[in-house]
Amino acid sequence: MNEESPQTPIRVVVAKVGLDGHDRGAKVVARALRDAGMEVIYTGLHNSPEQVVATALSEDADAIGLSILSGAHMTLFPRVISLLQEQNAADITVFGGGIIPEQDADALEADGVAKIFGPGATTTEIGSWVRDNVGKSTVA
C-alpha cells in the first residue's frame, strides 16, 4: 500500500492594518480562501503590525494577507516584515493588496512582501497564488 503524507491546510491570517476602515475586500478574500480549503483567521479592523504578527505566531500561520487602502502601505507592510524577522518567523509569507501604486508594489516586493495584488485581482487569482506559493505539508 502506498501511503501519501497528509497535507495540512494552509493557515492564513487576513488583516487590516492601520486606520483603514474599509474591510469589504478583506472579507471577500478571507471567504474565498476559506472556500478554497484554507484555514483563515480574519483579525478585523484597525490592527497594528504588532497585533498582526502576534496573531500569526499564535495561530501558527503560514501566511499573512494584508489589506490596505489608507496609503500607509510603505510604512505598515515593512513593519510587519521587520517584526517577523525579529521573531525568527520570516518563513511566514506576507502578501497583500489594496490601492498600491505599481512602483510601491515593486518596492514592497523587493523588501520582502511576496506578492501585491492590485485593484481588479480576482479571488481565484489570489487563491491560486496562495495555494502555489504558500503552505507546508506534514512529512512522515
Can you tell me about this structure?
The chain has helices spanning 24-35, 49-58, 73-86, 102-110, 123-133; strands spanning 11-16, 39-42, 63-68, 93-98, 115-117. By secondary structure, the chain is an alpha/beta fold. It has a 5-stranded parallel sheet, with helices on both faces. Helix 4 links the parallel strand 4 (93-98) and strand 5. Helix 1 packs across helix 5 (123-133) and helix 2 packs across helix 3 (73-86). It is globular. The two termini are 15 Å apart. 39% of the residues are buried. The model is unreliable at 1-5 (pLDDT under 50).
A few lines on this structure:
This protein is 40% helix and 18% strand. By secondary structure, it is of the alpha/beta class. It has a 5-stranded parallel sheet with strand order 2-1-3-4-5, with helices on both faces.
Q: Which terms summarize this structure?
A:
globular, 40% helix, five-stranded parallel beta sheet, alpha/beta, 5 strands, 140 residues
Topology (elements, then pairings):
Elements (H helix, E strand, L loop, with lengths): L10 E6 L7 H12 L3 E4 L6 H10 L4 E6 L4 H14 L6 E6 L3 H9 L4 E3 L5 H11 L7
Parallel strand pairs: 1-2, 1-3, 3-4, 4-5
Helix pairs in contact: 1-5, 2-3
Secondary structure: number of strands: 5
Computed Rg: 15 Å
Which H/E pattern describes the elements? Answer: EHEHEHEHEH
Number of helices: 5
Coarse morphology: globular
Mean pLDDT: 91
Helix content: 40-55%
Query: How is the biggest beta sheet arranged?
Result: 5 strands, parallel
Oligomer: single chain
* Stretches with pLDDT under 50, minimum 5 residues: 1-5
End-to-end separation: 15 Å
Strands of the widest sheet, in order across it, are 2-1-3-4-5
**Strand portion:** 15-25%
Structural class: alpha/beta
